[in-house]
Design brief:
Strand order of the largest sheet: 5-2-1-6-7-12-11-8-9-10
Order of helices and strands: EHEEEHEHEHEEHHEHEHEHHE
Strand content: 15-25%
CATH architecture of the largest domain: 3-Layer(aba) Sandwich
Number of domains: 2
Shape: globular
Number of helices: 10
Distance between the termini: 20 Å
CATH topology of the largest domain: Rossmann fold
Largest sheet: 10 strands, mixed
Length: 273
Amino acid sequence: MSLETLLVYLETDREQTNLVHVAADVAARYGSTVTGLSALGIRPPFVAEGVVIDLGGEAEIEQMKFLLANRESWFRRVARERGLVVEWRQGVESPTTRLVREAAGADLIVVAPGRETADHYRRPDVAEALLRAGRPFLIAPDGVRALKGDRIVVGWKNTREARRAVADALPFLVRASAVTIVEICEPDETESALSEVEGLRRYLEKHKVQPCHEFVARPERAIGRQLLSIAHQTNADLVVVGAYGHTRLGEWMFGGATRELLAASDVCCLMSH
């Protein structure tokens, strides 16, 4: 399995050099082409003290195009320093909408985590894009400078989202020197969880993923944070998980592994929905 095309989303108001380096690491390992993408959305008119204020005039649009052109120049310079031949996409439109549309041409999308309180006229809603894009996302935290993918933790639950994530992560898994499969469950679910984890190990071994280690853990804290703790204990630099097995609203109200990892992970996460 291969990763022929990578799409990396770059924000216009900060230089995400580390994000480009992570994408470059993946591209070098798999011979991928890399496309950079950035977009800025036009804010709708609003009323202030009885006056309609429209921020989407020609001057504002020209400023957006200027910022996007600067981001392209910066991206091409950083990519050239890493020996990458790249393409570029941009648009004056919703960043989330443009990201989802461009996902059709990518095997893997590389993004920074994003925040639920972010200005989504200036940067994409990563959670919404995950739900809509139909492609795996590599979430690279700001402090991560490189990705080897040599030691990987798979957060497992026998759900559609987790099965999709494992299939999407196979290019990484087959090259890893150590893969740890983890299912976190309540004590009365241990027997079935052990069976399901063993089933996944057999599946991965048929795809030449070795060695695999598996264990079932009882919940000790929020699941996302527990997976991160296990990643740190095993010196893993990549966590593979299914995204939003519950509704996004449910995770926002009650918490959930996807939200926890997007908010707090200091390790790269490969997520699929």
